[in-house]
User: Fold these one by one.
Assistant:
Number 1:
Amino acid sequence: MRVLSGIQPSGSFHIGNYFAMMKKMIEYQESQELFAFIANLHAMTSLPKGDVLRTNTREAAAGFLSLGLDPDKSVFWVQSDVLEVTELTWALSNLTPMGLLERCHSYKDKVAKGIGANHGLFAYPVLMAADILLYQSERVPVGKDQKQHLEVARDIAIKFNNDFGETFVVPEAEIDEDVAIIPGTDGQKMSKSYGNTIDIFCSKKQLKKQVMGIVTDSTPVEAPKDPDKCNLFAVAALFLSEDEKKDLAERYRAGGLGYGEVKKDLLERVWNFFAPYREERDALLEDEDRLNGILKKGADKAREVALKTINDVRKRTGIQYWV
Ligand code: TRP
């Protein structure tokens, strides 16, 4: 099965990115035909400065690779290295009803938050549909927040196939209802835009600040505590074995355990868990030729698939006029 997913290079990856998306992709490369990319064209919609986007893109690619994404077992590339995706976006734009995009929550939410309503932000779901359709993806694992974008991609694929003949695989969304939402330091969903992240590749000092900043209630040390209502417990559980989790839950219920102690232990666990990846990422970022080489090879593999689709689209839409 061909599985595709993309991740935006918006600053440092956090443990929410890892447990909700990256870990799953890294597992999929063993059993599926995995296509994974760094969505730097999507990141442009949040208007980063050029040098920031360039650095974030390299860091995201090195980060994903260091965490275990294997470019020999998967197709891994940077979105903008296969610019046929922007051409397909245009072709698809012409059969995307305005109403379909106007209904998209993610656009409406961003505008409600005060982000300027530009055309890139509005057209974001069409670019995302092009990512998915260009590579003839069968399955797209995404978080609940992206469910509607997948529906848009399916609608566009069906309409194109109807109007121009069978061209695209109609993709299925894979929405893992059981992946618990990873809480951030304030208890809301962990997200860069909420500023509540625990980052994977930051300094120990920064990590300490984030972990120690996890919001807990004011139950005194001696009092029994409810692990199921504690977001510190939920984060700690990601780094514990089943037995360790049970053990910590018992210590919560017994009383006499302070949150500070749990946080100190969590800090060491997060730091040690990602230590080998941190080293590998730094090494990759230092060896520019190696990173460039991996990404170029990945783009070449992706482009091979993309060209087949885009040639078909050019013929069907009459853009390839020469005979
Ligand atoms: N919009 C996705 C997100 O922010 C990232 C993304 C871009 C994506 N293109 C994609 C995900 C194609 C899946 C398939 O999470």
Number 2:
Amino acid sequence: MEKYLLYINGEFRESSDGGTFKAINPANGDIIAEISKATIDDTQKAIDAARKAFDSGIWSDLPGEERSRIIKQIVDKINENAKRLTLLEVTDSGSTIKKAGEDVFLSAKSLNHYSKMALLNLDEEVEGLSKPGVSKNIVKRDPIGVCGLITPWNFPLKMAIWKLGPALAAGCTVILKPAMETSVTAMELARMISETDMPKGVVNIICGEGSKIGTELALSPKVDKIAFTGSTEVGKIIMKNASADLKKLTLECGGKSANIVLDDADIDMAVDGAIYAGFYHQGQCCEGGTRLLVHEKIYDEFAEKLKAKIMKMKIGDPMDKTTDVGPIVNESQFNSVMGYINTGKEEGAEILVGGNRFGETGYYIEPTVFFNATNDMKISQEEIFGPIVTMIKFKDDDDAVRIANDSIYGLGGAVWSGNDERALKLAERLRTGTVWINEYHLLSDRAPFGGYKQSGIGREFGIDGLKEYTEAKHIHIDEIKDRSKKTWYGTVVPKD
Ligand code: NAD
């Protein structure tokens, strides 16, 4: 069994009270690791280390080339350890090995992209109030400072990298706090970072309870920004805590995205797409297509084909390369998802397929589709975060847009159609951060990702994502050196 210690100021340490917690394999209940559980005192030490490292300029003052080189060393470490990281991701989170391998590959790819972003000079010269030649106006982008990075359990390594990458590229120092359910690969990251030239204190990684150490990060006046991915509920708590000192925030929160199938779609492709959108990683995806909106003309045919295809999905051991559906991350999440299956039945939706626990060991749930669901049902409005899709009927494009936008969330969504122009028009009317046309889940390191409405604040990826880790500073340089030629706006300066 692996043992992981906290990573603070470049050193591995036990927690101050010696406390630990266990990492459990959700496929079989095995304990796979013991991890030190940070106390408030440990959290403060990690914050102090990050603060000292930031204020010393040891990272932010390095030339972009040097920061880029060191970030690239982490990329190389991830690639060298890809197999180990993949296996740990499977045993720690219940991810299928297919998904875990892809996550590790994409984590390295994203971090590599950020290593290049460290080379960017985001400063620009803009026109000022006075005429050109009279003043010069520079907009500089300074690193925002010390960042608390708080991540969820569904894509453990990837979520850590999505935050670590832009923070380090921008010149910030960090305290990364992964979810307790899946802390193992973040601690592996600590080990790998300790083997690079990263200066001490720039990256600190601590595990433990969000309600304690996450709260400390959000409240501490020594932390300049919180970058959070997780539930909308916790996002709101963080926002409240961070308001004490107007800390900067990016929040990537929940979703209930509409996956819209128009009557001119290639039905077989859209069926595959609906499975991918709704059941990728057992439906534990914030942007998942959990509300499946299907045109009334094709609704029954679509349902029949969807059911037949879902019956072919292989549920079971996530280590098996042919497995499509692995376990839910833990018992409490399993119980919550099973509870929603009951809720759907009580609300009067019919089960098209699934609806049961699978097997007796491990937290497996059959991919489940509710048929003839309506958008006002709880199962259509609340984020379930499991393999549950609600199938809702619509009449025409206006009706689809109305239903899709009738949600407190606005993170993802898709349109399936044989007519790109029609699909694009519809996509433009959706109040959501990402829309795919005849595709799902694919994100780009170069395009912003984030939520409208209660799906979040701010964006990750692309230049927008990098700028979230900077403060904009305007420097106005007056170029009139002769006092007699100077004009003071307003009248407060008396003439000689
Ligand atoms: P969660 O909100 O329970 O926890 C997320 C993180 O916040 C964990 O590290 C947790 O320990 C920490 N935390 C908990 N309470 C805290 C507090 N009071 N103060 C500070 N930190 C605290 O979410 P989860 O269950 O780990 O993940 C599932 C949720 O994440 C879903 O709602 C999902 O939609 C969301 N998610 C969103 C995105 C996105 O990009 N929008 C991506 C993945 C997951």
